[in-house]
Amino acid sequence: MLTTTLLAVALAAEPAAAPPPRPHLLVLGVFHFANPGRDMFNLAVDDVLAPRRQQEMAEVVEVLKAFRPTRIAVEAPLGSARVAEEYAAVRAGRRPLGRNEVEQLGYRLARELGHPAVHPVDVEGEFPFEPVADFAKRAGREAELEAILASIPVELRRVEGALQKGTLLDALRVVNSEELVRRDRERQVALARFAGGGAYPGPDLAAAWYRRNARIYANLRALATSPQDRILVIYGSGHLHWLQQLATDGGDVVLERLEEYAARRPAR
């Protein structure tokens, strides 16, 4: 008994081994700056090339610099020659930055940090929402589906309010807030409940969305070839939950968040 006690005391006195170094990842959820209207619900965005917004864009870039990214990944097709060509032209001063978030944040930040490349990691996937809507109609659950989706425009108006009354950084802080990420996760789970009678449109939608994000994450994780790598990925906010969750569940990267860096900025 005494030997066991002494061993326990000795083990407790030993300093805990430092965890091995791991790559760091920051997932920046964004809305579409160029407002292409490709999503089910779209945010009203004013001209990000206007002088005021360009000053605010510079502020966002300074916040992201504090993360010290070694690689920057963007929402563009994996292996995209267009991204390589555009970024090379931007870096050489032969091409102005366009309105979209890939260029305004991804290309701009990479150029200012002297990165030789920007890394596209996107994988196309299906989003089979129509079978869910058809099932809801047949099952008399249209009101339930509408109630689930009704929260999306409310959240968009909140982001628009932050954009109109504040700055781009203010709006991005709302987009990346734990509250909005949690609500998006809850919607995904709620949609997965649309099933019955041998039909599974809700689970199929959830599976398709997970598959796309798992593939994106695989491309993203492959960029970290060293424990010293710090990967910033700029992506549509609908991907935030799964990209962050996959990073957390994997346990082999350190997940960081925008708020950790945005909160350090002095109040305007």
In short:
This protein is α/β, with parallel strands linked by helices and 268 residues long. Helices cover 53% and strands 10% of the residues.
Write out key terms for the chains shown.
single chain; 268 residues; alpha/beta; 12 helices; 10% strand
Protein described:
The structure is a single chain. The protein has one domain (26-262). It is of the alpha/beta class. The chain contains twelve helices and five strands.
Helix fraction?
Answer: 40-55%
Which blocks of ≥5 consecutive residues have pLDDT under 50? Answer: none
Sketch the major β-sheet.
5 strands, parallel
The SSE string, one letter per element, is: HEHEHHEHHHHHHEHEH
Give the neighbour order of strands across the main sheet.
3-2-4-1-5
Number of DSSP helical runs: 12
Q: How many separate domains?
A: 1
Query: Helix/strand-derived class?
Result: alpha/beta
Q: What is the global morphology?
A: globular
Question: Would you spell out the secondary-structure blueprint of this structure?
Answer:
Elements: H1 2-13, E1 24-30, H2 51-65, E2 71-77, H3 81-91, H4 101-113, E3 119-122, H5 130-138, H6 142-149, H7 151-165, H8 168-175, H9 178-191, H10 201-222, E4 230-236, H11 240-250, E5 254-256, H12 258-262
Parallel strand pairs: 1-4, 1-5, 2-3, 2-4
